Amino acid sequence: MHSLATLLVASLLALGQLPCAAQGLQLRTEWWRPNGVVLAVAIDSVNNVAYLGGDFSQLNDPDPPFSSVARQRLAAIDMNTGDVLPWNPGADGQVIALAVSGNNVFVGGQQVQCGGQTRPYLSVVDRTSGLAASWAPQISNGYVKAFAVNAGRLFFTGQFNSVDGVGRTGAACFDLATSTLTNWAPQPDDLIRTMVVHNSSVYLGGAFNTMGGVARERAAQVDDQFGNLLGWAPTVIGGTGVYTMARLGSTLYLGGDFSEVNGQPRNQAAALGTNGVLTSWNPAISQMVHSMVPFNGNIAMGGDFNNFSNMAIADPITANALTWSGINGQVFAMAGTTTHLIAGGSFNAVNNYLVTKLAAFTPAAPSVALTVRMFLDGPYVSTTQLMNDNLRASGLLPYTEPYTALGYAYTTGGATGTAAPTVLSVTGNNAIVDWVVVELRNSANSAQVIASRRALLQRDGDVVDLNGVAPLTIPAPSASYYVAVRHRNHLGVMSAAPIALSATTTSVDFRSASQATFGTDARRVEGSRMVLWCGDVTFDHSAKYTGTGNDRDPILTAIGGALPTNTLTGQYRQEDLNLDGEVKYTGANNDRDRILLTIGGSTPTNVRVEQVP
Ligand SMILES: [Ca+2]
Ligand SMILES: [Ca+2]
Ligand SMILES: [Ca+2]
Question: What's the predicted TM-score (pTM) here?
């Protein structure tokens, strides 16, 4: 499955300055989801694979048939499809750091067993087989916290005091060609959490107060051969120090838990030139930043901060940042490429989408936003001008769209996605009534569907995306389209004329007589409102009471075929025309009479045909 759900074309938080250019992101809702925290992400951009580490035991497919696979703390995802790959080295302790180089994946953390061998704290596994390499680094008791691969070397930090039998305190480096320890030994007095290697220097951030015995307050620069101290020396004060660093050009970005850098107030994020000069960049993040990566010329940040819902993408100069409705838990790890931004953490939803522990975003493709509104005659109650939500309230609404099973062919990606239980648990006017389909049709040929998309219908008539919130965004260029809506047992409708759509939300209100529709009597008048005709049990775009292929007989069949007073409850059925969760042939609130009402009760041989080309 390959679809994209548009996550945001969000408002910009100006922070007292002019907003930067809007950058939308699309959430890839089809990626498999780990069942436990993700602490490390590394991307093999040559093979388009994302490697994940953390503390999970399983990955779950969000799309039917909702398969699961066991993966102990390590997994790989095909970035083209979002599917989990066979790679399965397993780790018996928390995985904290990952790096990919050539055919090797480097695994750092608290594990002892990995890839089928005893490889404590730093394990080298094959990127495709998942088996441990014969190279077995010997790290003394502790853990590995961070990796940096540069020019044929693997720099790593953590809590240890020897490597391959040689004294190394918290930082060391291997030559990858020879698998041997190099002379790099920078000597911190406390944990180094993050590194950036650039121009023969290694920039370090962490909890330390000295480096090589010389005062360095949580940030330092050393050379890449011996780890000898160099002159870049920011003073980072407050909190627990530096957790992450990223570089764009000659600027180094620091994130973590601090309040002051070089005597200036800087909350959780700051930037300095490689010349050591603090820049004015100050996104003012409210709480902990765990991870930072460059992403398409901006700085993406993840963490545990309220003011940007745990993830922000900031302009590298002005620090103006996108804001959105958010990730609902901590982000611990991020990775960025030109095509993807990946966030791992402990969250359980992204902008209300049921996306757990791992979120993959792509830069937004062109999309149009529209708030469609419509009423279905079956569940509509004219006194309240709301529709009943009995299907949802009875737990009968499926979490995925029902139209594919009925033979409806969506355009690419139109069917994907799962409605979160939180969305289907909403009550009141915005409670979900049923699934619907929204179509954009060619302005020059209204029979041609350009884009079709599953959506959810609220009691008050709003058609919303899978996150339960309007507008619905549909990947399509800004243009004029006929807009059509379909329902599984009501007759669809289409706008009488093309409507100009763009990224700015357009309202299309089929509840109102002032929204003209294609054809003749496309909707039923119900008081001051317009509703979609009900009665198409067979989903063949007409309502028919008698004769071949009629919509009445299936109701009788559904209740057993013999006794018309039988009823069928507790199922999500085509025959349930009033959407009350019950299939009923006679008596009060039966489904059969709805067909008669639609065709015009006096002549049972009448047929009402859907007014959509
Ligand atoms: Ca609403
Ligand atoms: Ca029919
Ligand atoms: Ca019913």
Answer: 0.73
